[in-house]
Structures are given as structure tokens and as C-alpha cells.
Specification:
By secondary structure, this protein is α+β, with helices and mostly antiparallel strands. The chain has 2 helices and 7 strands, in the order E-E-E-E-H-H-E-E-E. It starts with 6 loop residues before the first strand and ends with a strand.
Amino acid sequence: MEDSSEFRVSSFEFQGSIFKFQVSGFGLKVQNSTRTSQLVTRNSKGFTLIEIMVVVFILGLLVTMVAPKIMGRTDEAKRTKAAADVRAIQQALNLYKLDNGRYPTTEQGLLSLVTKPQVGIIPARWNPEGYIEKVQFDPWGNGYLYLSNGDRYTLKSFGADGEEGGEGKDADLDSRDL
């Protein structure tokens, strides 16, 4: 039975022989004036069990090689993110000090980098666009500790445990150590 999606190339002459190509479904038939040969005879659609097993094996191999490198690095990634956040807040605090001659106080807090402070010493040259878009939480969902008398400041993340001190993933991240 002929497939209705058949495609034919008209006669083609090469070294005295006339060739005709016929593509039907997944099959390819080449005819010349002296003989007909089937180059591809696969007419079924889909994958064989062997093909599926090879793909599953390759995927399994990739997962066993890649997964250990990805897993267990989330703590390291969170510490890196916290360090980047602390550096960004430090830059905003330094810009605030350049504009106003002092850092925001503890009472004014990090929110003074987003909106103009309404308590303590009100800055005369506060940037109307702010210094950061919003006050971020650390990657563990805790607020950053900010203490300042206006001349100096301390900026910390308490790490994964959210408590002062600790080691490894629970270790504090202090702006003075970056």
C-alpha cells in the first residue's frame, strides 16, 4: 500500500543509468534502470525498547555525576548571597554618609536607605531616589543586624541558625570581615 505523503524526484541520469528517488513514510527507495534497492526499510513509528533503555542509562549516568556537585552547595550559595547583600548595603551606607556626613543611627536603621528618616537627626541632603530599592532579609529569612552611632556601624547576618556565634553554616557574617 502506497503512502499518500510520497515524494518523488524526477529521473536523474548518471553514467548512463537513470535514477529515481522515492521517499515514503520512514522508507527510502532508490531505483535505477537496472535494479531497485531498499536503503531504509523502517516503517514503524516510535522507539524500540533498546533505544529507551540507552537514553535512561545515559540520563542516570549524568544525574549520578552532576547531582553530588549541586547538592550540598546550597549553604555555600546562601553565604555567598549574604556576603553580596552585605557589600551592597555597605555601598549604600557609604553613599548615605557622603550625602549626609554621617551614617544612619541604629534608631533610623537600614530603612533610612529606602525612605527618608523621620526620627533622630533628619538628613538635609537625603537622596530622593533612596540608596537601595528595599531592605532585604538574609538568605535564611532573618533581618540584618545594623548598629550605628552615626560615625561607625556594625552590619551582620547571624547565619543559618539566626543566633549570634556559631560555626560553619551557622557562623555569623560581619561586614568588617569582608
